[in-house]
Amino acid sequence: MATKLTCFNYPGYEATADAYGISAAVRTPPGSSIIAISGQTGSNLGEKFGTLEEQIVGAFKNADKALCAAVPELNSKEIWQCVFTMTFYLVGQLSSEVGMLLDSVAKSYLGDHRPAGTAVQVQALAYPDCFIEVQVQAAVKLD
């Protein structure tokens, strides 16, 4: 069973929360184990990086693999409900088109769940052709 997280927004933050599918703050329950994954890119372990869309999809797939490896007792849908924060590192400008694409892929994993989130624009990432890196943390309390 997935951990029950409590999400919070303060007055005036609702528009941002709705626009980006995030919460201003998330409280994890007492006794939870924190799962932190390394930043995940959209590569297939040595293969070339594709388009930005392919990289976003791949980065989420790799994040999913990492989370599921850390908590094999939960399925993919359950573990993403335990995610309490996400950080996206993006090379270049975060255009509305990129934001919509990122939001669409994130919602395919998160559904209506809204963890805290941050997008950071960077000049470059570790790999020259890499445009995005995704880092997430989850709180898991297994029965």
TrEMBL record:
SUPFAM superfamilies: YjgF-like. InterPro entries: RutC-like_sf, YjgF/YER057c/UK114. This is Uncharacterized protein. It comes from Exophiala viscosa.
